Amino acid sequence: MTKNTTEAIILAGGKGTRLKGILDDRQKTMAIVCGKPFIEWILLSLKKQGVKRAVICTGHLSETVESYFRDKNDIGLEIKFSRENVPLGTAGALRKALDKTNSKQILVLNGDSYFKLDLSGFLKTHIECNAKASIILMPIKDASRYGSVKIGEGGEVLAFMEKTTEEQTGLVNAGAYIFEREIIEKIPEEKKVSLETEIFPDLIGKGLYSRLYEGLFIDIGTPESFDKAEEILSEEFKYPIR
User: Fold this and answer.
1) pLDDT-wise least confident of 77-91, 97-111, 158-172, 221-235
2) For residue 233, is it within any domain?
3) Residues 181-185, mean pLDDT to the nearest whole number
4) CATH of the domain at 68
């Protein structure tokens, strides 16, 4: 990835209601995995791929995230914060954070998932497709409880399919996106807006493309997936990582 081309915005405002017994008084993305807050592993991965600045969108228990990273200088990239005083949804939080970035393309990630994303390849695909927004999709055996995404030739997104009661294979949203800055600028400010249910459906036919990913993926949204995160990350980073 060309350095300084893409800055990252990480969505980290969720409450983590399904992890109450694990989190105690921590914000979900600050859950300790392999001795570090989970979101720190995401930041370290971004740094290794040339990202120079990351903006963390905080909401629930925002101070626990901000106080930890405010004076932490050993990660190797600039960290800024964008705090929601009231819940703004994924798109509303993204719009609020935009003013803390400068780049033409913005990488957006969920703070509760980690995967070995090839940022250089993702950005290359985005630019070659002349995309306004791009989304990472993962093929899974049972997409029924997530809802799936239908794509056409060249990876253009054609439709978002609803959840079903029948088990079926499909492509699902992995929670990583690249947006042209102009698209984020069009999101209403200080309003609750969803990327998944409002922004992406509206972009169909207007430059929404995809890139497939089939590698390692960790989501700490449930106790079961959280339990697997320690083992997977310890193998992934193979201490010491610096």
Assistant:
1) 221-235
2) yes
3) 98
4) 3.90.550.10
* Rounded (5°) CA angle 220-126-4: 80
Using DSSP, state whether 47 is helix, strand or coil.
helix
Count of domains in the chain?
1
User: What tokens were used for 149?
Assistant: 């995404």
HSE-CB of 75 using CA atoms within 13 angstroms: 26
> Who has greater pLDDT, 230 or 180?
180
Determine the angle formed by the axes of helices 38-48 and 223-237, rounding to 10 degrees. Answer: 40
Print the domain residue range for 75.
6-135+175-189+219-237
- Name the phi and psi angles at 228, rounded to 5: -80, -20
Q: Is residue 18 in some structural domain?
A: yes
Percent over 70 (pLDDT), the chain: 91
pLDDT tens-place string over residues 79-91? 999 999 999 999 9
53 in a structural domain = yes
Other C-beta atoms within 10 Å of 169: how many?
11
Residue 152, domain member (yes or no): no
pTM of the model: 0.90
